[in-house]
Amino acid sequence: MESSPCEGLSQKESDEIYTQGLLVFTGSTEEDSNFAKQFWVAASMYPPNESQLVLSRGSSQRLPVARSSKGISRESKVNAEILKIQESEEKEKYLQKAKRRDEILQLLRKQREERI
């Protein structure tokens, strides 16, 4: 592959080479040069096909807005119920501890009065 196609060529020949493309493969077979050209065309940085889409009439690029589904509200209701149950269990546990504490305090007062 030669980087300067103008060496040893007339102006007309070099113009023809430049119009064919920027790459010149001197001393290569036509098959090799075709493979190389195909490679460079494929390796070029074109934007993906998705970005080249053109809108037709009546079509929109935006996705439809998702409606609130009943499944989500059911799930949130279930989560809320579970949270309420956990809170009530925790509250009951603290009430039992408070009741036990009061019983212990009453027992200590009774023992103190008996000692006096």
Automatic annotation (TrEMBL):
Pfam annotation, one family:
HOATZ-like
* Top-level taxon of origin: Eukaryota
Q: Name one GO biological process term.
A: cilium assembly
Q: Which InterPro entries match?
A: HOATZ-like (IPR040681)
- Organism, scientific name: Galemys pyrenaicus
Family, similarity comment = Belongs to the HOATZ family.
What name does UniProt use for this protein? Cilia- and flagella-associated protein HOATZ
